[in-house]
């Protein structure tokens, strides 16, 4: 994991500044990238975790300029919690992804989600947030989460891709909120676009985004093919498939791999290609 400076504003181009949060981990890479868009007035995209040092860094970079909106791609706890103190300090509305509330069996995924996230306005496909010299158009990109959004900055052909597309790793798709079919459809949607650069929620900018998205689609289809080949040999569960598919995986990432394999199995079941549950998934008769 590269040693990048946290809390230091990095001017990516005239309308885009990034500030890296100090929350590096196996799942967040070097930390969450928060972005300021604009010059005279600003949008803040994914303000990140509610850490005093990161909030101070955001305020220093804002430098007293008006904040039009605080935008949230999705409300995982590494993306949205700082929206609340930042809104109190700037007076800006919190807008973006719809709130999510897990219940029943879904409660086991609560740990990843910001249960207190409460946007002032939920954004949907085609909505626009604008300021002086900048326009952010909303794209619905579900898959990593059901409420995931991306924001396209028309003036420079940039896309803030959140956790949907990142250069350093593929996105975790964890059912029941994560959906592999939706994730693949969202990748196809982005592949049809002409964005020049992606600014992801973690990692460095992606300078050839269509090539990366094409590769990610191919990677997921390859994983799907592996699953089908292994199930033709014998019935297995997600854990058994991971054992064969991810040789030498970092133990910290094994759980995420199992969730993504489960997402593939659920998608294949919907398409009538596999059947089963638990540890006994098999090729459909």
UniProtKB/TrEMBL annotation:
<protein>
    <submittedName>
        <fullName>Glyoxylase, beta-lactamase superfamily II</fullName>
    </submittedName>
</protein>
<dbReference type="InterPro" id="IPR050662">
    <property type="entry name" value="Sec-metab_biosynth-thioest"/>
</dbReference>
<dbReference type="InterPro" id="IPR001279">
    <property type="entry name" value="Metallo-B-lactamas"/>
</dbReference>
<dbReference type="InterPro" id="IPR041516">
    <property type="entry name" value="LACTB2_WH"/>
</dbReference>
<dbReference type="Pfam" id="PF17778">
    <property type="entry name" value="WHD_BLACT"/>
</dbReference>
<feature type="domain" description="Metallo-beta-lactamase">
    <location>
        <begin position="31"/>
        <end position="202"/>
    </location>
</feature>
<dbReference type="Pfam" id="PF00753">
    <property type="entry name" value="Lactamase_B"/>
</dbReference>
<dbReference type="InterPro" id="IPR036388">
    <property type="entry name" value="WH-like_DNA-bd_sf"/>
</dbReference>
<dbReference type="InterPro" id="IPR036866">
    <property type="entry name" value="RibonucZ/Hydroxyglut_hydro"/>
</dbReference>
